[in-house]
Amino acid sequence: MQAVGIVVEYNPFHNGHAYHLEQAKKVAQADIVIAVMSGNFLQRGEPAMVDKWTRTKMALAGGVDIVIELPYVYSTAPATDFAKGAISLLSAIGCDSFAFGSEDGAIQPFMNTFQLINNHRTEYDAFIKKSLKTGASYPKSLHYAYEQLSQKFPATYIDLAQPNNILGFHYIEAAMMLDSNIKPLTIPRIAAGYHDALQEGASIASATGIRKALAATSALQSVQDVLPKASFDYLADWYEKYGKFASWETFWPFLQFTLIRHTPNELTRYAEVTEGIEHALIKAAKTSLSFSSFMEKIKSKRYTWTRLQRMLTHIYTGFTKEQLQSFDAPSNIRLLGMSKNGQAYLGMHKKDIPLPLISRVAAMDDTMLAVDIHAAEVYNLSIEHGTKEQSLPKDYQTPPIRF
């Protein structure tokens, strides 16, 4: 069975994802689709709007055959490590290819871009350092370095200012650095850009646009046209149970308490907390009534919104620098869900998978997995607070979803 891998967050699974899924399978001429999906906290440093089990159900209903979890260590990491973790897992589970959505839509410019940076790494790093000395943020410095190189060595390259192109580049970089045989494919994004707001009458919207629409109004009907029926029904069921979707605004009282209860020195233990910002975090937390007002106080030229959110995610979950440095590569494959075809694939390939394939978490002793379980517990705490409904699934007790 030919398997194509995809890297997803599905926050939530929408019509654009359904299109990408269909095209990935078609372009790869694959029999099944394997998705490596972020858990309850995401790459831009924020909680997923609904938990990973609900999003797994959306994925399976949408046509994914196997859903495995991208561990917290990678799902909340900068793009380079996010991609490294994801491609490592897709390679380990036996994917013949991986497909990603991009603004560019053609694979050769990605390969050209990788060769440009890889062949001129010393010069590239020098341009980055030069830009950083001016006070520019790291992402802006990366873009500056890329612009300088691409002008010096003209060819057809991707636009690295576009968010999906950036991730696509890092997927290819990871595959090359891991010396993997997995083949890269790209699917052009259609209709809605990554940050575009929801457009009236549209059938495809970005996940960001959907979340913003739901934040502005609790009326789920406002996003019904851009979601498959199953996704809409799962969101409606979630909202009926808990009365809210997860976001930093809904988590703010817990995050605020977490920040204030620490001393500045204690905050420096956590991953990505650097350069004296710990004092500003505590000061702003004491005087902010909302997450958005807090962020406006601490955002600066040097710290992007995403970098700050990742930092706060690690503080909230208690993930330390020492823990981060202790992990070098994925230690397991956590199975979240599978279709009948997915189950058949695993039956055929299980003996060839080099990592432990985990379906019964309670029986495992794995430090990377322990981080995932802890992250799920603190996520659930914030969702369940103030509700009388049944608690969310206990992560260590929940078996893979069979669809």
TrEMBL record:
Cleavable signal peptide: none
Known EC number: 6.3.4.-
Pfam family, any one: HIGH_NTase1
Keyword Cytoplasm: yes
Principal subcellular localization: cytoplasm
Catalyzed reaction equations: cytidine(34) in elongator tRNA(Met) + acetate + ATP = N(4)-acetylcytidine(34) in elongator tRNA(Met) + AMP + diphosphate
EC class (word): ligase
Subcellular location as annotated: Cytoplasm
Organism domain of life: Bacteria
Function recorded in the entry: Catalyzes the formation of N(4)-acetylcytidine (ac(4)C) at the wobble position of elongator tRNA(Met), using acetate and ATP as substrates. First activates an acetate ion to form acetyladenylate (Ac-AMP) and then transfers the acetyl group to tRNA to form ac(4)C34.
Annotated protein name in UniProt: tRNA(Met) cytidine acetate ligase
Gene (name only): tmcAL
